[in-house]
Design brief:
Chain A: Keywords: ATP-binding, Nucleotide-binding, Transport. Chain A: Pfam families: ABC_tran (PF00005), oligo_HPY (PF08352). Chain A: Belongs to the ABC transporter superfamily. The complex is a heterotetramer of chains A (about 325), B (about 325), C (about 325) and D (about 350). Chain A is an alpha/beta fold. Chain A has a domain at about 1-105 and about 215-335: 3-Layer(aba) Sandwich (Rossmann fold), CATH 3.40.50.300. Chain A is about 30% helix and about 20% strand. In chain A, the strands form two sheets. An eight-stranded mixed beta sheet of chain A has the order 6-7-8-3-9-10-12-11, sandwiched between helices. In chain A, strands 2-1-4-5 form a four-stranded antiparallel beta sheet, with helices on one face. In chain A, α7 (about 195-210) links the parallel β7 (about 185) and β8. The longest helix of chain A is centred in the middle third of the chain and has 18 residues, at about 195-210. Helix content of chain C is about 80%, strand content about 0%. Chain C has a two-stranded antiparallel ribbon with strand order 1-2. In chain D, about 35% of the residues lie in helices and about 20% in strands. Chain D is globular, with a radius of gyration of 22 Å. The chains are: A alpha/beta (about 325), B mainly alpha (about 325), C mainly alpha (about 325), D alpha/beta (about 350). Chains in contact: A-B, A-C, A-D, B-C, B-D, C-D. At the B-C interface, α1, α6, α7, α10 and α11 of B face α1, α6, α7, α8 and α11 of C.
């Protein structure tokens, strides 16, 4: 798996965001070794679409999200937003383009400055960009706060710690919305929340997406959540792309052994579905400092063969917008 | 060397956070009230020393007939001489108040200067990291490895022998300025290290990342996102630091490296009267000692309260 | 290993900068260093010129510094005109006293503060803890000049338990007399340290005792003593170790006051005398020795971290 | 492991009678656990499910007696094999901890002592409780590491926690918990810090060990999916009280409490088509210092009426293996009429329910 290749990309002009051969590395101390966080992945997001990025810890999904925002700048590859190349942009051009893409983070408490009033936090983007008069800014902020279900009056007099986790996440969303972005990158936005609150936030995201015509990149480790909110899902493993498919298709007919394993591992809230031991994958994710050769999943793959160690699989089409990077996919093109 | 970190609690686990919210068994704010009132009174006396009749009415340097009258000094506190007088017959109370003026000004000026310089350097080192951080950390190490007395010798002993120093707006005694420079230099490194460690942890927070994602400039992030979160800790450190500096000034003055004329600080007064201790001159030592101790204690109490108010872990300076 | 080498190099740089700055500052502050070096007596013009040549005072600072370094390596730092002895002899006689003094006060402070802090943290907010909290607060606020004056007055002048004017006696010559001589200065320095150490260790221990692995240790059914000493104490030592290193400089600085009051002929007193008599060579040598001591203890504590914490060892093995 | 005493294989192991755990804080008394009663048989596993702040962790720690003494007020009885644990005192509890009952914590990184080798951490309870000598304890520790399926166990004995992967750390923690052969194992969110593929392995491991050793297990979690496959019974907690308790199959097939129902409906499910509207529970859990009078779920419950807000429903047994605390449970007339109303107004979709 762990494939490279761009067979799954849509024609150039169609996508709002087009990421090609993205490469992000982090140095390990001063050893000269590198963490290969993301190694040559490509994907695109169509306007108005929700793309889900899913995978376990260390697969590079969050790194990918941040790399799109150029936080930090990736070590290689290209990221085109609306036809404009982001990686070569610098200074003012980059700053301006950033208003079009916004980000929501995992920890709702830590992503809000504890010492500022909520209204100020949401207004900060407008202040940075000097948009509108103070009255116009306040009006805009209150509108957005209303839209995410936060009482503007309370926001004006309260600091983040006076709100619950779910409400803080709403405030984060309001801050992201206030500049009228085209795209929002949601980095594990619900994993710190309780299930009942998680449902509120997921529903809110769906509503806002429809209301403001947003395009979403939704990053999470929980496949059930990702599947629910996304139109298409990309499964990642150890810095590589495994499988890209329409979300229902991915669940009904997974083609990559890793996707299958992931689906089997998710605990189903139904005692009749009893998972059996032989469906379990053995071992744990290898170190991204020295990843396995060939297909990166081969060390844990139940059907790995010699070829998987020697040769890195490329993404191949299975039809119906379904792509897989595996030498021995669980199903072939129809 | 790793740094002393004041930990800003992020998300304590539920049980400890519950238990920590239990009020301390004594809800004793008495100490704080007492400390603040003491400092207020002392500051009031020091600021208005030249105007207050009960400070001014005593001749601090008796001459002529009065000096002769006082030659056989009693030394004991009396209704006339509240703190007694020393072997030259000088009134210890008036001298102590004038000394408070000097001591407090020196302490305050040094801690403010050190906080501004050290805070700025620490913030830059913690935020930009890399080479900047490495160079600064060597500078901090150098400052820490400097013996205080050698620093005092160089700055006070030679550069500021005496006379007036004209700094445009200010005009002040050169020696006075020298002491402030020494104390500032001594406290820059420890303060900068505390601020650096804090900044380091704060700049990992997601709201800083969020601000960068919004296109905020580094300057804006430092001023708007990081500085406000540093302030409570710096505020607390300012008080405990002030206490430490008063002790340090006491040591320098004791050794003769601080202002002496026309009025010394408490440390020098203690050293001056020390030789007289056995000959009934104890009061002239006792009162400066008590004032110095109480002042240091009061600042420590206030600093501790501020730290607890903002839930900051104890820091060493 | 790479980490150690790097750290060592950094400290060498620190040492060089400190000594260089000291030299330049001291000599630049003097109107004529050569005349100061010649001493107040027999300062004929010829003698001054001779000294200027001998110490290369007519050369640029970097060159002067190079010669000074050479002299440092060969341990031949010239003669003090005012104290009438070679710098090597003076420093060699005085430095051990101060180092012993520092060592005693740290050992004494640690010996007292460890059990006190552990017990206070174990019985948090109990009567003992509250008493200790108040006492250490007062002790932290007690300037050592006051403490020294009080100790001196009561123990030496009034009750005559300890000598006021201490003389230099080595521990191997007469341990009893030696400890009697250094007792008051040691206590002067140790009181503040005990207070700082207790507060620091207690607060760290209280934090550690709330951490998950302590609950885990309790769930294993271990005794409180075992949890405190085996599990909690070790992970709470880091701030204390940092503090010991940071305080070391302060102790050597504080030694000047203590030695001055109790007339203990250590390096602090030597430095004080040298400063008063503008004895540049001695001041430079003392400053160098001071910097060296601070640098070495920093390095030692840094290494000690790795001994205590395998995670640091691990990270350093990588870096 | 050799059990230190001959233990009966069946019967009731644990019985809670109206257990209350309150904390006195600056703002008032937090009623973290407020009147919980249930029994647990030997060799059975019980899942305690609840959202954060529901009191599930504090309940588990109250049973074990592992709460800090300061500010904690505990009422009610905890009977362990017929013995009231409250009467034991701290010294007596120490003999229980590790030997009779032990615990696995959420985050293996912070719950293992970072400065102590794995082998030492496992052999510590062996040496303290079973008086083993060094060699014997080390051999037993090795055996335990093999039992929990850690690769290269000899090597691991001399490693520190940070040198192991997350899954291995959790396995090591399980080995410590199993060391003295406990009768009752608490697992407090044992897999929350782990990846899904590893989570499955760890849950299987706990399950296998329970069977092999005939232990009782109390599995505390927020994830209904985790308990579904791995416990015999489930207790659903809300705001410090038990909302519903039933055998696992019964609970999922025939849930009665509206909170349980809401919880199940708010989870996105893989077998639903994407973009399925989730049923969000409005509002948020109550403040446990001033909990609502009456049913604690009433302020958020779509079926609540005046009685619910005034009178506390008791936990009552509907059948041998099912009890719940609700005035208008799922399937009751009021529930039915309200449900129809919600569907007709579009708040709920007719297909929103779960098969």
């Amino acid at each position: 798996m762990a494939g490279t290749g761009k067979a799954h990309l849509h024609p150039e002009g169609d996508a709002l965001l087009r990421v090609e051969d993205l490469l992000v590395e982090f140095p390990v101390g001063r050893t000269g070794l590198k963490v290969n966080a993301v190694t040559g992945i490509s994907f695109d997001v169509l306007p108005g679409e929700t793309l889900g990025l899913v995978g376990e810890s260390g697969c590079g999904k969050s790194t990918t999200g941040k790399a799109i925002m150029q936080l930090p700048r990736p070590n290689g590859g290209s990221i085109a937003f609306g036809g404009q190349e982001l990686t070569s942009l610098a200074g003012e051009g980059m700053r301006t383009l950033r208003t079009n893409i916004q980000m929501i983070f995992q920890d709702p408490i830590s992503s809000l400055n504890p010492r500022r009033k909520v209204t100020n936090i949401v207004m900060e983007p407008l202040n940075i960009w000097g948009i509108g008069t103070p009255e116009e800014r306040l009006k805009k902020v209150n509108e957005v706060l209303e839209a995410v279900g936060i009482d503007p009056e309370r926001a004006a007099s309260s600091r983040p710690y006076q709100f619950s986790g779910g409400q803080c996440q709403r405030i984060s969303i309001a801050r992201a919305l206030v500049l009228d972005p085209k795209m929002i990158i949601c980095d594990e936005p619900v994993s710190a929340l309780d299930v009942s609150v998680q449902a509120q936030v997921l529903n809110l995201l769906e509503d806002l997406k429809a209301k403001f015509g947003l395009t979403l990149v939704f990053i999470a480790h929980d496949l059930a959540v990702v599947k629910n909110i996304s139109d298409r899902v990309a499964v990642m493993y150890l810095g590589k792309m495994c499988e890209v498919a329409k979300s229902d298709d991915l669940y009904l007919r997974p083609a990559h052994p890793y996707t299958q394993v992931l689906l089997n591992s998710i605990p189903v809230p139904d005692p009749k579905v009893r998972p059996t031991g032989n469906q379990r994958v053995q071992g744990e994710i290898p170190s991204p400092v020295m990843p396995p050769s060939g297909c990166r999943f081969r060390t844990r793959c139940p059907i790995a063969q010699d070829r998987c160690a020697a040769e890195e699989p490329q993404l191949q089409a299975l039809g119906d917008d379904h792509y897989v990077a595996c030498h021995f996919p669980l199903r072939t093109a129809n | 060397m790793s740094d002393t970190v004041i930990e800003i609690p992020s998300r304590p686990n539920i049980i400890t956070s519950l238990v920590r919210r239990i009020p301390p068994l004594r809800k004793w704010k008495f100490g704080l009230v007492l400390s603040v009132s003491y400092i207020v009174v002392l500051t009031f006396l020091a600021v208005f020393a030249n105007v207050l009749p009960f400070v001014r009415r005593y001749n601090v340097l008796p001459k002529g007939a009065e000096a002769r009258r006082l030659a056989s000094y009693r030394g004991k506190p009396s209704s006339e001489y509240w703190f007694g007088n020393d072997k030259l017959g000088r009134d210890t109370f008036a001298r102590s108040v004038y000394a408070a003026q000097k001591t407090l000004t020196i302490g305050l000026a040094s801690i403010v200067a050190a906080l501004v310089i050290g805070g700025l350097l620490g913030m830059l080192a913690g935020y930009y990291r890399g080479w900047y951080d490495r160079v600064l950390s060597v500078i901090f190490d150098v400052l820490l490895a400097f013996p205080a007395i050698v620093l005092a010798l160089i700055v006070v002993g030679r550069f500021f022998q005496g006379g007036r120093l004209n700094l445009g707006v200010f005009e002040m005694d050169k020696r006075f300025f020298g002491v402030i420079v020494v104390l500032t230099l001594l406290s820059i490194a420890p303060l900068a290290r505390i601020v650096r460690a804090q900044t380091l942890s704060l700049s990992q927070r997601e709201y800083v990342l969020a601000a960068r994602g919004l296109g905020a400039s580094s300057w804006r992030i430092l001023v708007r996102e990081i500085l406000p979160n540093l302030l409570p800790a710096m505020f607390s450190v300012a008080f405990t630091g002030l206490a430490v500096l008063l002790v340090a000034e006491g040591g320098l003055a004791f050794l003769g490296f601080s202002v002496q004329l026309p009025f010394p600080t408490w440390g020098f007064m203690i050293n001056e009267a020390r030789s007289d201790l056995t000959k009934g001159g104890g009061w002239a030592v006792f009162f400066p000692c008590v004032l110095l101790f109480l002042t240091v204690l009061a600042f420590n109490v206030i600093g501790d309260r501020v730290a607890r108010r903002f839930d900051i872990r104890e820091a060493t300076l | 290993m790479r980490y150690f080498a790097q750290r060592f190099l950094q400290l060498v740089v620190v040492f060089l900068i400190v000594t260089f700055v000291t030299m330049v500052a001291i000599q630049a502050a003097s109107k004529d260093p050569a005349r100061d070096l010649a001493g107040p007596l027999n300062s004929t013009e010829a003698r001054v010129e001779e000294i200027r040549k001998h110490y290369h005072l007519d050369r640029a600072y970097p060159i002067r510094y190079a010669y000074w370094l050479k002299n440092l390596v060969t341990v031949d730092l010239g003669n003090s005109p005012t104290l009438g002895a070679s710098v090597r002899t003076l420093v060699g006689q005085r430095a051990p006293i101060t180092l012993l003094l520092g060592l005693y006060s740290i050992v004494l402070a640690l010996a007292i503060s460890l059990p006190v802090a552990v017990y206070a943290a174990y019985r948090r907010d109990g009567p003992f803890d509250r008493f200790i909290s108040g006492a250490t607060f007062a002790a932290v606020s007690l300037p050592n000049i006051i403490l020294a004056v009080l100790l001196g007055y009561f123990f030496a002048t009034r009750w005559r338990i300890f000598p006021y004017a201490a003389s230099k006696i080595w521990p191997w010559d007469n341990p009893g007399e030696h400890f009697k001589n250094v007792a008051l200065p040691t206590v002067t320095l140790a009181v503040g340290l005990v207070a700082i150490f207790v507060r620091l260790l207690r607060s760290d221990l209280v934090n550690t005792l709330q951490s998950d692995f302590i609950v885990m240790a309790r769930a294993k059914g271990l005794s409180p003593a075992r949890i405190l000493w085996r599990h909690a104490l070790r992970s709470s030592l880091f701030s204390l170790m940092t503090s010991v290193a940071l305080q070391f400089g302060g102790i050597l600085g504080g030694a000047v006051v203590a030695e001055q009051i109790f007339a203990l002929p250590g390096m602090g007193l030597l430095l004080f005398q040298a400063v008063q008599q503008k004895d540049l060579l001695v001041v430079q040598a003392c400053a160098a020795l001071f910097a060296l001591a601070v640098v070495i203890i920093n390095f030692a504590v840094d290494m000690l971290y790795a001994v205590v914490d395998p995670r640091i060892r691990h990270a350093r093995a990588l870096g | 492991m050799t059990a230190p005493i001959n233990r009966p294989q069946e019967g009731t192991l644990l019985e809670l009678r109206n257990l209350r755990t309150h904390f006195s804080t600056a703002r008032g008394v937090v009623r973290a656990v407020d009147g919980v009663s249930f029994t647990l048989d030997r060799g059975k596993s019980l899942g305690i499910v609840g959202e954060s702040g529901s009191g599930k962790t504090i309940l588990a720690r109250s049973i074990m007696g592992l709460l800090p003494k300061r500010g904690t007020i505990r009422h009610g009885e905890v009977l362990y094999a017929g013995q009231d644990l409250a009467s034991l005192g701290l010294k007596g509890m120490r003999k229980f901890w590790g030997q009779e009952m032990s615990m696995i914590f959420q985050d293996p990184m912070t719950s293992l002592n970072p400065l102590m080798r794995i082998g030492h951490q496992i052999s510590e309870p062996l040496r303290v409780h079973l008086d083993m000598d060094k060699v014997n304890a080390r051999a037993t520790a090795l055996k335990l590491l093999q039992d929990v399926g850690i690769p290269e166990p000899e090597k691991r004995l001399d490693q520190y926690p940070h040198e192991l992967s997350g899954g291995m750390r959790q396995r090591a923690m399980i080995a410590i918990a199993l060391a003295c052969g406990p009768t009752l194992l608490f697992a407090d969110e044992p897999t929350t810090a782990l990846d899904v593929t590893v989570q499955a392995q760890i849950l299987d491991l706990i399950q296998d060990q329970r069977r092999d050793r005939n232990m009782s297990v109390i599995l505390v979690t927020h994830d209904l999916g985790v308990v579904a496959g791995h416990t015999d019974e489930i207790a659903v907690m809300y705001a410090g009280t038990l909302a519903e308790k039933a055998s696992t199959t019964e609970l999922f097939a025939n849930r009665k409490h509206p909170y349980t129902e809401a919880l199940l409906r708010s989870i996105p499910r893989l077998d639903q088509p994407s973009h399925t509207r989730l049923l969000a529970i409005g509002g948020r859990p109550p403040d446990l210092i001033t909990p609502p009078t009456g049913c604690r779920f009433a302020p958020r419950c779509p079926y609540a009426e005046d009685k619910c807000r005034a009178e506390i429903p008791e936990l009552e047994a509907a059948s041998a293996d099912h009890s719940f605390a609700c005035w208008h449970p799922v399937g009751s007339p009021r529930w039915q009429s309200k449900q129809d109303e919600l569907v007709s107004t579009g708040v709920l979709s007719a297909s929103g329910g779960i098969a």
